[in-house]
Amino acid sequence: MAVPDGRRSQLLRGVLDLCLLAVMGEGPAYGYEMTKRLRARGLSIVGEGSIYPLLGRLERDGLVETRREASNGGPPRKYYRLSPSGKRALDAGVDEWEATRDAIDGVLDLAKAEVAP
Amino acid sequence: MIEFVDECRREWRRLGVADPIANEMAADLTADLEEAEAEGGSAEDVLGSSLFDPPRFAADWADARGVTGTTKPVDPAAPPLRGRHGWYRPAAVVAVSTVGFLMALTAGAAVVARHSSAVAAPVRAILTVPGSTRLVGPFPFGLPGRYAVGAPFAVRGPGPVGMLVVALVFAGVVGLGVGVLSWWHWTRRGAGRRLS
Predict the structure, then answer these.
(1) Residue B32's domain spans which residues?
(2) Which of B27, B32, B48 sits opposite A47 (nearest CB)?
(3) Is the pTM of this model over 0.95?
(4) Count of structural domains within chain A
(5) What residues contact B174, with CB distance under 8 A and at least 6 apart?
(6) Between helices B19-38 and B2-14, what is the axis angle to 10°?
(7) Tens-place pLDDT, residues A19-28
């Protein structure tokens, strides 16, 4: 059987962009702040790739808007927030995730029933 | 942490990322790493597994943002195009072609403008043998070979001006030919034996 961590990485790789868009929906955030928001919701990226390239792709695709501003008296940071097209992409992505998750749950529930003693 | 950011900067420089953009990315990265450290966290909290491969992380980030410069990595297995033929320079090709064309044009204009025996004589000297015969046609009665021609074609010897014009024409044609061949060969080989 495949190493569980490898599967987790593959699963996360498919939805991390949605997760970043979702935490941006709470308000503009810089890179590390988004990492902390994810961790607060039980999703740690330790052992996974960095979110910076993904943020770069979201920016290039026009799904996020950015601006530099001072952060809590510190140096200027790059803040990311959802763009209108990013909001639409997030809504569509959530629908797609829920449909896929329900379908997979349907299959795996069957396997769980077979495995259960 | 500093070493990580420095390695990223080196990679961005190698990829041709503009300095303002590289500075911005380095500043954001440094600020995030410092904040994580101040909160008792680690660089891995910020970077994940990318912590262990700074060049790959830097390249992925720059590529995702679309900020890499026009300089692309060169295939180290491919011999350098211009190093192997040092004389092979587009600028030199253009220069040779231009000079050759101008020389041929100047000489041609001189020939047309003068159109005198001082010019014609050296030209005929190339095509005739000394004396009053010439090697080739027109061929009377369809027969090739030597035959006598009249006095006007007698060769006295070309003057200095005429020789100069002939030399200019010859040099211009040769220069133009070299330029054209060089341009053809260079465009045929292609400008890029580089990784896409």
Answers:
(1) 2-65
(2) B48
(3) no
(4) 1
(5) B100
(6) 160
(7) 999 999 999 9
